[in-house]
Amino acid sequence: MNPEKDFSPLTPSIVRALNDKLYEKRKVAALEIEKLVREFVAQNSTAQIKHVILILSQEFALSQHPHSRKGGLIGLAACSIALGKDSGLYLKELIEPVLTCFNDADSRLRYYACEALYNIVKVARGSVLPHFNVLFDGLSKLAADPDPNVKSGSELLDRLLKDIVTESNKFDLISFIPLLRERIYSNNQYARQFIISWILVLESVPDINLLDYLPEILDGLFQILGDNSKEIRKMCEVALGEFLKEIKKNPSSVKFAEMANILVIHCQASDDLIQLTAMCWMREFIQLAGRVMLPYSSGILTAVLPCLSYDDRKKRILAVANVCNQSLMKLVIPEDDEVADEGKPGLASLPTDTDQEESLSKQEGVSGGCLDTSGDSNFSSTSVFMPASAERLQVTLNLDGIVQVLDCHLHDAGAGMMTRIAVLKWLYHLYIKTPRKMFRHTDSLFPILLKTLSDESDEVSADAGSMECSPTTPTMNSYFYKFMINLLKRFSSERKLLETRGAFIIRQLCLLLNAENIFHSMADILLREEDLKFASTMVHTLNTILLTSSELFQLRNQLKDLKTPESRNLFCCLYRSWCHNPVTTVSLCFLTQNYKHAYDLIQKFGDLEVTVDFLIEVDKLVQLIECPIFTYLRLQLLDVKSNPFLIRALYGLLMLLPQSSAFQLLSHRLQCVPNPELMQAAAAA
After folding, report:
1. Per-residue model confidence (pLDDT) at position 342
2. Which terminus, N or C, of the chain has the lesser number of Cβ atoms within 10 Å?
3. What residue ranges define each of the domains in the chain, with the CATH number in brackets?
4. Where is the Vacuolar protein 14 C-terminal Fig4-binding domain positioned along the sequence (predicted)?
């Protein structure tokens, strides 16, 4: 510093003391400056005050010499004390050089800068709020300072600034949000702690509505939630919890749509706490916002579906994901089936408090990423200043996106069983609620649904079967026959599937759909089957199901009596295909009480090649005759006179059998047939 330079109105002794390396001498100089500035204030000499501040800034605080910088800092603080309430007129000039020293390499100097700014802010109080952003920016850097003394000093200044913001009603939140959004992505733990502490303070101030700007900082908050520090994670949990409470209190003012994709992203986080918290938020959003969330359904499903297969280690996430899935499914309604060009998309509006209570009470009883979720909405492009009322918009179900996600999960070999079941339930729900729109997806979904029939899970394959041939509309009925053809082709090419799961699949289809249609269509298709061995095996399987499954009780009764044209037509159709297997044809005749024809068929068995497989089938038929299904047949043996061909047919089967357990069983049964002469005598008596 040039000793000959004129620093007036600062005296040479003040200048020397400010440049001294001893703190005590610099403090004496500061007291002299304070006295001098007070005189200028009394004289209303604004020019002199500005000149003093300028000298202290340019010649001292921004000097190349460290001791001069320290002198400049204490001098600026002294000016502020002397100015008192008038310091607000000079805050820009007082604050800027001090903040520059926050970046100094010397930790002691950074500490003095912090001390000086504390004194300036303490005097100015609410007048510093127009300069809040630069103060916050400087403090956010000091929060991560490696020197403990500097950090301690910054914490004192931070608390003072928080007190000022809390007691003031002039805080400019709009201009602060961009800075907060930028700083919230810091990876430094201390900086993150600093950010969260400020968010908690701003949340607690009644006059500051931080909820309006939550879309700007929500993503950053979820990132901080994954911090390694337990203390920071806890602070962030508290902050998010407070926001969620506020959202529940005032759903009508919440910008749900702007935050939907942020939640979708974090619902897929690898960190359990982030995923659970995001999923809980998603649950509340779906229940509070209702159909406003529909445009984001594909993204939500991308995040939620994999969670449905979580085990007990993540049971909390699983439970919340289940609620999300079921609540979202309820949002799809028949009105969504209106075609797009009709121009009738549904109107989504946020519910009133009364509506919300009713909605929540109704919804309480509801029981890997495949898609670029940004395709639904780009939250980064929305304005932070957009009023919440803008969410009263028309909502159209993005069915193509939803089906794409569901199809992707069906193709994913690694998808868990419960995920696959949920996908199938979604497809079934969409076919029920929006059959016209779903029709155009049937061709693309058909192959994978057919493949899903061979799933190891009974529930998955059963749901797939009901999806494949559910005739929800007249147009969809054309797929029923096509499905039966493809199902039989699959059984033909995958014999193990037929052996292990064939009966189960067919029984489930009969349970869910019309059993008569299923048997009629299969019999008709098998009539033209070129692979005779497969046709015989398939007919045997169908016959066993027909005779033994409780699901086909009504169909058996219909065939037993043959009283209607429909039942007789069904018998004729079955009979033609059942002829692929001689023994099953006889059993069908027994079921329909065509005993004479059964006897005639058995008479012709002598012309066939009697193989081991043939005898095994006869053995199984004998076992079936002893089952409850054929109780009526066994009782008819009492009326020998009226049922001679039944007895002859049974004796015919007996003659076909070798001396086996089945032979003994049928022989004992026939021995119980009463003597017709005795029966006549008893009747006469």
Report:
1. 40
2. C
3. 1-170 (1.25.10.10)
4. 495-673
